[in-house]
Amino acid sequence: MKGIESHWYRTSPLTLLLLPLSWLFCVVALGRRWAYRAGVLKTQCLPVPVIVVGNISVGGTGKTPMVAWLVALLRKEGYRPGIISRGYGGGAKHWPQQVRADSDPSMVGDEAVLLARRCHCPMAVGPDRPAAARALLEHADCDIIISDDGLQHYRLGRDVEIAVVDGVRRFGNGHCLPAGPLREPVRRLRSMDVVIANGTAGPREYAMKLQPASLHNLQQAEKTRPLAQFSGQRVHAVAGIGNPRRFFELLASHGLDAIEHPFPDHHPFRAEDIDFGDELPVLMTEKDAVKCQAFAAAHHWYLPVDAQLDERVPQILLRLIGKTHG
Q1: pTM more than 0.85
Q2: Quick one: average pLDDT of 262-268?
């Protein structure tokens, strides 16, 4: 962890220096939320239920696997889900954009393409989330919408709010940006419908674990190998996600001897970024793979992860959806 982020999980002189800006950030965040709740700023509601999955902190918490799990649950229950997202990192000139499995991640964002490939359901992205949702409803037969991220985008009305928190790093030093990692104060969690902890769950939280699937080859999609087959081997590990340490620790827990190559979240990978001058296997996250597939070699692999949630969560969520649109 480099730069200012290294100060978010401890208290340092820089933390104290930035505290006035953090207090201002909190005041603005709380004031903006109050304005929407009081009707001063208008919320746009949709004719179908909306579930927002997000977090109150910056950095990876496991939100994307949670969205994929939720899509599978809703589809199993007979719903026709669609996904909307910001499309972070996408360089499209016009929004909203429909996202397909073969969409260009440099145009619509890496996480959007990952979800389109994983979930096989309609998806639209754009900085204006209500507009993305309306575009999705116009072009696809959806009866429920999941917003990937967007807890702080109050212009989009929502029926259910799900927060995903890091069960290990928690909330860092507890301060809002820029002195800490929080987008909103921790007490915001009290108003959430469900709080999911990626790792150890605290009070009023439900645990989620990320279970690794088989490794997939980037050149030959049908070629897979169990992660255990790499146990004891020296490999290169590439991670351009919010919390690369989580990926590296996962590999280490399965006995891999990984040479770690962390990159910034949403890094725009180039061929030289994953060419280390040897033939050692190169393992990366599924999010990174969508940007590296075009120039990957035979020794490049990616590791999908599946969310496993507390067995009480499905019924809780289905009851909440039924209560709001019964």
Answers
A1: yes
A2: 92
Q: Which of 172, 249, 188 is nearest to 29 (CA)?
A: 188
- Asked if pLDDT for residue 324 goes beyond 70, the answer is no
For the chain, give every domain's residue range.
Answer: 6-209+309-324, 214-303
At 49, is the secondary structure helix, strand, or coil?
A: coil
Give the neighbor-by-neighbor strand order of the sheet with 282-285: 224-225, 215-217, 300-303, 282-285, 234-239, 257-262
Decide: residue 239, CB within 10 A, 0-12 exposed, 13-18 middle, 19+ buried. buried
Helical H runs in 211-284?
244-253
| Cα 31 from chain centre | 26
Phi, psi of 139 (to 5 degrees): -105, -10
Share of residues in the chain with pLDDT > 90 (%) = 86
> pLDDT for 203-252, tens place per residue?
999 999 999 999 999 999 889 999 999 999 999 999 999 889 999 999 99
Tokens of 287: 């999010």
CA–CA gap between residue 112 and residue 121 (Å, rounded): 11
Pick the CATH number of 6-209+309-324 from 1.10.3720.10, 3.40.50.300, 3.30.450.20, 3.40.50.1980: 3.40.50.300
Q: Are 254 and 262 spatial neighbours (Cβ–Cβ below 8 Å)?
A: no
Backbone Cα Rg of the chain:
20
C-alpha to C-alpha distances, 112 to 30, 86, 89, 97, 324, nearest whole angstrom: 29, 9, 10, 10, 27
- Confidence check: pLDDT of 2 > 80: no
Beta bridge mates, 206: 196
